[in-house]
Amino acid sequence: MDVLEGLMTQHRVAEHFFKEILAARAPEAKERLLRELVDKLDEHMDFEETIFYPALEAVDSSLVEHNYDEHQQAKPILSALLGMKGGSPEFMDHLTRVRSLIETHVRKEEDELFPACKTHLDTAALEHLGIEFESWGKGQHQTRSPHRDHHHPSP
Ligand SMILES: [Fe+2]
Ligand SMILES: [Fe+2]
What share of the chain is helix, strand, coil (3-state, %, to 5)? Predict the structure, then answer.
């Protein structure tokens, strides 16, 4: 799997969830969709922080120095949202704020960081990241197919 394609697909899924949360009417539906979104973002950010950013840092630490901070800005808002009533004014306010933070972060990753990967990492390094990406969700989350027969140990 192409790691950049994989990460971009997860970005699109997150954007889709934000739209679904806004469109959902029942507070319970908003809360359920939010929990799913937070699970997916946790998995995505964990992979980036543990595997992806360090691979780039090894080449040039300035490439990703802001990325960790941007994740850290989003995380407390996401945790706070988990304790709020779906659709309440505070919920909507936090949702709007975190959506905007994440959208800006995603745009920078896709416009600047991902193109830089192609110039800073060779094909073998990118392929290795792709393998790590595929195995990542399987070790920690149950949302992916449990029927894959090959297993990569968690990093
Ligand atoms: Fe990120
Ligand atoms: Fe990302």
Answer: 80, 0, 20
